[in-house]
Design a protein that fits this description.
321 residues, six-stranded parallel sheet, 9 strands
Amino acid sequence: MSKSAVVLESPSLLSEFCGANDQNLRLLEELLDTRILYRGNEIYLESEDDAIRDTLVRIIDEIKSHMKLGQTPNRDLIKAVHASVTEDGSSPQDLIRRTSLTIPGRDRPVFPRTLMQGYYLQGLAENDIVFGIGPAGTGKTYLAVAHALSQVLTRRKRKLVLTRPVVEAGESLGFLPGDLAQKISPYLRPLYDAMESLIPFETIQRMEDQRIIEIAPLAYMRGRSLNDCYVILDEAQNTTREQMKMFLTRIGEGTQAVVTGDVTQIDLPRKKASGLLHAVDILGSLPEIRFTYFTSRDVVRHPLVQKIINAYESEDAKGGE
């Protein structure tokens, strides 16, 4: 059987490209449906199909470009680049590379790990209102926080406002101990987890002390006008129609708003319609508002999470309880 060879510049480059225990090569074998071997600084394809070899060459060229920018090749990047040169050939192949974020105080840029994450970051860069809708683990909240920090820490925005509907407490927080921040903080833990993975904890504390970070339950946003802010509404599937309208009309001059939610995780009473679903219906045609829809293919947590989401989606499609 003939073997097509692709030559890399050095064995060390090949080693980094292959990944730990050659896991990147094993993934490429699945994606290209052919066995892949290597020796020295050469990769061999056990295939006579020139189209497959051309696809591999394009993938390698793209990965090398990412590596020059400091991104480590991993399964998510391999899958995203493969999609960019095959399934989504009409889209810019460098989308994942050119939509990276630089955050002051962080050593390395934040890169999107899937094509949809690339489109999401592109929307954050171009639109004042962005919706990120999709299942858990797709990076919609993480990337919103990353973009917010890049804007606030470079003083493009005055402050970062974090909010969400407190469905579990019925928006009545008076019975909980502590001040308002202590009452709402547990509900905003995913946003803080994202921040702590991006910048030092000391920086977060300093921003809170200087009131550059503000947290508030959604019910407390009524009557406010937010100017020159970056506002993130998380868990938006649990807003009512009235709450979503109230939130979107708080946006003042120079403010950017990001709304994230998972429409499969609505905790509202059945008689109430989700404000997120309603917003999709009535605002989806506005070109000034960007809607990004993630799927299980965009999950970047443990590989098993994607399979779990697919299993539940399959059951829902069959009408399971």
